[in-house]
Amino acid sequence: MIRVLPIQSSATTKESPNPGRLIVLTGPSGVGKGTLMRSLLHRHPQLYYSVSVTTRSPRPGEIDGINYYFINHSQFEQLIAESELLEWAEFTGNYYGTPREAVLKQINSGKLVLLEIELEGARQIRASFPSAFSIFILPPCFEELEKRIRLRGQDSEDAIARRLHRAHEEIKAANEFDLQIVNDDFQTALNDIEAALFK
Ligand code: 5GP
């Protein structure tokens, strides 16, 4: 059984000399969260990336256990029923969630744990972990976001429409987060995130 340490402050305790922390990276689909997250992981090996579970089908090139754990609806429902998810949300017709145990284990061992998740999940994490540091990534403009989603070439026209609709809603919530970064120039966005995390 894993004990959840309070991570309100960076103060250390006798039982846990090195409490970790959650970092939430959120923002609309297509904004470049995934690329930013991969660069952060590459440049800062001390970060732990939480691999999510999803009911979405794998895209070409995606690997089970690396990009996501790909599971079916009934498996996902079972994880919810057994309280195995730290947060979860429905996103454009599929379910996505963060496995609880792996994340808490990493936090308790002093790691900085990175979650790359959508708005509803990010809100749940902020409610249960007030000391989580949350970053909202914004596109330079909506047209650019649409262009990026289309360029990815991985979603059907229907899925693109649903993602764009959701993006409109998500962007309105940007100011709920600790830091807002406009992903216009990738390197600048990355530098700004690093400055906030490792200053
Ligand atoms: P995609 O289908 O493009 O991989 O992901 C769709 C959205 O789900 C993205 O905004 C992504 O950040 C989000 N997402 C990925 N994993 C999780 C998760 O574990 N929980 C939540 N709430 N959202 C997630």
Describe this structure in words.
The longest helix is centred in the C-terminal third of the chain and has 15 residues, at 157-171. Strand 5 (85-91) and strand 6 (94-99) form a beta hairpin. It contains seven helices and nine strands; from the N terminus they run βαβββαββαβαβααβα. The radius of gyration is 17 Å and the shape is globular. It is of the alpha/beta class and 199 residues long. The strands form two sheets. It has a five-stranded parallel sheet, with helices on both faces. Strands 4-3-6-5 form a four-stranded mixed sheet. Residues 1-16 have low confidence and may be disordered. 29% of the residues are buried. It has one domain: P-loop containing nucleotide triphosphate hydrolases (Rossmann fold).
The main pleated sheet reads as: 5 strands, parallel
Architecture, CATH level 2?
A: 3-Layer(aba) Sandwich
Q: Give the CA-CA distance, first to last residue.
A: 34 Å
In which order are the strands of the major sheet placed? 2-7-1-8-9
Question: How would you describe this structure in keywords?
Answer:
Rossmann fold, five-stranded parallel β-sheet, 9 strands, 21% strand, globular, binds guanosine-5'-monophosphate
List the helices and strands and how they pair.
Elements: E1 21-26, H1 33-43, E2 47-49, E3 53-54, E4 69-70, H2 73-81, E5 85-91, E6 94-99, H3 100-108, E7 112-116, H4 119-128, E8 133-138, H5 142-152, H6 157-171, E9 179-182, H7 186-198
Parallel strand pairs: 1-7, 1-8, 2-7, 3-4, 8-9
Antiparallel strand pairs: 3-6, 5-6
In short:
The chain is of the alpha/beta class and 199 residues long. It contains seven helices and nine strands. The chain has a single domain, classed as P-loop containing nucleotide triphosphate hydrolases (Rossmann fold), CATH 3.40.50.300.
